[in-house]
Write the structure tokens for this entry.
Amino acid sequence: MGKTDRLSERQLTVLLFVSLLSPMIRILPTAAVVFAGRAAWLSPPVALAMAGVPLALTRAARRRANPGEGLAELIIRGLGKVGGRIFCAAAALWLTFYGGFIARSAAERLLATVYPNGGPGIFIAVMLGVALITGSGLTKNLARTAEVLMPVLVAVIAVVLFSAAPDVETVNLLPVTLRDGPGILFGALPIFNVLTAFEYFLFLSGHVEQNGAKKPRRFPWMPTLAAVALAVTFFTLGTLGEALSVSMENAFFMLIRNIRIFGVVERVESVVVAIWIVTDFIFLGAVIMVVSEIWRSVTGVKRRQAFVPPTAALSGAAAFLITGGAFELQRWSDTLIPAINMSFTVILIPGALLITMLRKK
Amino acid sequence: MRRAAIPALAGALAVLLTACSPGLTIFSNYRSLENLELVRTVTADTAREGVHVTICSTAGEKSDARMYGRVGPSIGVALGELIHLPLGREAILSHTENLLIGEAYVKEGLAQCLDYMERFSEMRLDTGILIVRGGTAKDLVEGLTGGETPAPDAIAGLGRIAARIGRGYFFTCRQIAASLAENGCALAMSVRGEKADKLFEDRGELDIEPAGFAVLRPGEDPVFLSDEETWGALMLLGLFRSRNVDLPVGDTVLTVSVDKAGASYTPRFDGQGLAGVDIALTAQANVICMEGDGDLKDPAYREKAEKALEEALRQAAGAALDRSRVLQVDFLDLAGIVRRKAPLKFEGVADKWGEIFPELPLTVTVKAELTRTFDIVDPPAVSKGEEAKSPWEKLTDSLRDS
Amino acid sequence: MIKNKQPEVSQEAPVTAAAMEAVFSDCYDFESRELNIGGNPGNTVRLCFIDGLVSGSDVAEQVIRPLTDPGRFGANVRGEQAAAMLLGGSVYVYTSKCRRKLGEAVEDLLNGFCALIFDSQGEAVTFEVKSQQRRSVDAPKEEKVVKGAKDAFVETLKVNTTLVRRKLRNPHLKIREFTLGERARSAVALVYIDGFTNPDLVAEAGRRISAIRAEGVLTSAVIEENIVDNYRSPFPQTISTERSDKFCLNILEGRVGILADGLPLGFLAPGTFSQFMKVPEDHSGHFLVASALTILRYLSAVLTLLAPAFYVAVAMYHQEMIPTRLMQSMIESRSSVPFPTAAEVILMLLAFELLQEAGIRLPSPIGETVSIIGALIVGQSAVEARVVSPVVVVVIALAGIAGYTMPNQDMGSALRLCRFLLVLAAIFLGMFGVATGCAILVYHLAGLESYGVPYMSPFAGSEGRHLSRALLRRSMAVKRDREPELHTGRGGEAKL
């Protein structure tokens, strides 16, 4: 009964679901309302339909992977040893920077909502410390942590939205006409951007147990995540209205600012924001795990854990590099981050997988 | 790795515990509970140097409400200075229930107040905003202070019952800000101070009374609606809860409690665009008091009463609609209603709404119903000194008469 | 320096009286006497035993009497013939063994046997005549029984295995014995149902027990800390119980059980978090009531872990969460307390732990009095003297009481330890610290395994299946499945 680092397909999907809750809540509903106005609540289903394409592509590509092979090995096999390694190294560097962005934006969210006096340093330090612990551990441990916490997070969202329901005004959501179509489509792009981040987690797919005998139990993470996005957009937009939703940085957490729980708790945003930081812990831990897994594949070093401390340090440096407070962060969040992310998830990774599939033929 | 983990963790803990670098810790967010004063009401009035802000706070359960004031160039600066109170106490704004703005300050300060409340995470977005009419907000709160009921409780009490007596509705910061952003105007509850009945010594100098809605527009003085117009607006906006109304029915006066009243809208379009809006008001009421000898068992009497009620409702709704058009301020959000009902057709008139609205034909039809009399159909008998007839005698008399 | 006077004797040496006396030299309770077989002084045999371990009356009646009876043993029955007669039942003892190695004979003596040593053959016949002086089977002291069996384990291994056998009348029930301890030679038994219990689990448990390197098995930690996957974790990974019904219930669910001579406890593996939230009474009461109580225990676990930390975070950093009236009351009550909130909570937690320890260590009558006085002093007087505020007393008391609902004391202790750490995290980082602490705790628990079974199953590692098993109990009228994560076999039914 030795410690092997194998996890099931379901565990990997739960891990990526919990991880992607973090950026999803960060961008919604503002990112969708900017384009779609009061019809923004229809953008998540559209994004779900769009994300079906890269999902199908990656599934087809993974069928060509050998047992124990993750996305890095597949790409290296497909693009060649040199090209594949350069590609994977670029992805690793991008994700290292992205890890810093995750830490920085989580810290900023805490400062904006709950801890107005103070700096981001302590939060970034703690987050990276926790990511160092989780990133150094087994993949299945992080996945199990996500499994345990997922019901808690979903329950928190459900309670929050249920409490906000009486303040929802249909005037803020309707009517929706065909003219809102283009807006809904553009509003779906940021959500699509988050959904396609699942491709990064495929670098860990080498740890997935290939159990052909048993029928694997699937977790429909993408429809569930889209449903969460729809609910959050619907209730936040319905309560705050279009104008306020657009002007707020963290509209969902502004919504929470007004929620009382049966007169027992006056304001719940401290608890909700603190619970939500767990998604950032898991996301950051997973990103560091992914990066170290990529470097292991690229360099051939057997121990993945050797790459964790330098990755965490570089992510920390990136987090502190994003200085200037909320304004600088918002600029990164609106422009560079989604652009680079989409380049990888929509063009580069699917392109590499297509080449791999064609080459195999 | 394992051997390095312990010293690494110890080092991390040392950094955490040392906590000497400003900005590296969250200790700056620490507040000592016993030194806090809960601010429950904030007032803002115009001042020569900017704004005069006062806070009404309580320290403990048994402490009296205290007021502290500061003048500053803006509400943010003034409140920022007010946080630090005498005797080492600290004001906490997270429990602020209401912001009272003097009517003279609305024009220059409303937008600033709303912006401050949206940005400052300590304040709730569902803090009520009240416009103080006929005086300053500070004077009103000072006048409420001194009685057994602290001023914030008195104001909160009005908030709980204003809609139930049909005299107003406490709009929150979120609602006002959203309405201003979407429609360019908003309604807010207005209040005034009335001299208190000093029969009881446990009351302050003033009582707080509802004073109808105030129509707010950015950069303009508020315009106040009358009580009837406020009632009409409540019904048309779907915010109505209940209200007692006296109805003259023949030579009797019937007091009814209207407990349901709502409006449905039907826009009419013709070849040239929006031809008008039909507003159907429906209401239900219960009889709570009768003066005179009315016969509620008589359908004709009831029909008269219902007609009287319909007329009262029509007048109220009509008054609100007329005021809205006279002011040329769509505070009843008719534009939004038409847009929701016929979005595509509305697109054609949206740009011209400002011109169309003041002349738009609005037809108000009212349907009211008396639903119950609370178990007393006949008014209580008043003896004239003769022996009262028994129910059997009354029945035989009525059969003989018919 | 004490010189070892004992001459070297080999385990493999033939059994002789001299060798036996040499082994047990300087042992005042070692008895050795010569007996005349059949009453013939010329035909002797040496009887050896350890006084106290054997029953004197059994030795006299069942061994000495028939042996010296000329009617039973002829005067000239010697050596091999005598040994054969002894082994054949001439002596009225139900267990007899023939020992040709000194080590085996010595071990028998230490296990309550007496030995008849035939010097000429270099062998001995040993008889089990254990003393019946033992603690009687009584109700469990540490685990309250409301509606179940009241026969708890005792210190004698044989009695414990008997209790198990009485409940599990199954020929496939195996009780494999191990002898552990370099110097104590403690007997440890591994209990499982052959054909039903996962053979990999049995093999792994056996391997871990055999690998125990200790002087002896005199405390439960010797077993527990040696057979668990992660001994550094304060969370229990084996179920320990003094209730025989709970022990058998878990065997029937597919676990392996371990009993040790000298310990009135049974250990069960693997142990998962959800198992520590269950009590055997859940199977005695109505399934709906049992389910509600199980959910209550989970809530209690959360309460005992988080209540003090939550209070500290809210009172220090997040006062906006407190309703207005309660806030006013708290400000009022704290206005004359000299200590900051953090110090108040830590002092109260420490006081609570001190009271608890004092209550355990002191003899019962004094312990109860101290607990009452402590509660009065801490609870009542400290509040009246305004040393602490009433809210803190309520929070700490609530957390403490919630902790006492934990069915397993080890789990309760682990949660108490984590409670302190979370309070520290709350002091320094507020609600963020509490969330961080909880995340690390959950990660630690999620990373634990017990014999290959994830510690947090069925919440994690079970593919989202069987979640209801952790929280709810199905009616016994519905067919009850075994624990799926234990991978039990289909055999092991109580028939051959």
